[in-house]
Amino acid sequence: MMGNVPSFSPGTAVSSALPGYVALCLTLQVHRLASAQFTVTGPDRPIAAFVGGEAVLPCHLSPRMSAENMELRWFRSQFSAVVHLYRGGRDQYGQQMPEYRGRTELLKDDITNGIVSLRIRNIRPSDDGQYKCFFQSGVSYEDAILEVQVAGQ
Fold it and tell me: Which domains, ranges and CATH numbers included, belong to the chain?
């Protein structure tokens, strides 16, 4: 019984599948490394703001590295709900939600250390809630969640 091995040549079946499998493993490994290059951290408590005042939403990279050539995006519930976008070394206002137009400023004094903050002026009751701060460099990206609590509504 033991001698009755099914008649196919194992060499060809295995070797034809192997290169694809090896390539897949390498690709997964590269992506795993890429996504772990840095982490993004926001404040550990909600940011208090008052109607008519301003809020500063800080985010920073660990380990410290320059974010000058990264894409930085603050958004609300969806990636496309852009509060502020910085890409290609400058602020981009084309995709910004109309309700934030003219009210946001990216504070870049410490961007070479991976520390940036978004200032939102003339706070409105609708600014209350969650924001995501998203950093992307090549295929690597990470984000952090921030909470703004608007008082005096």
Answer: 39-151 (2.60.40.10)
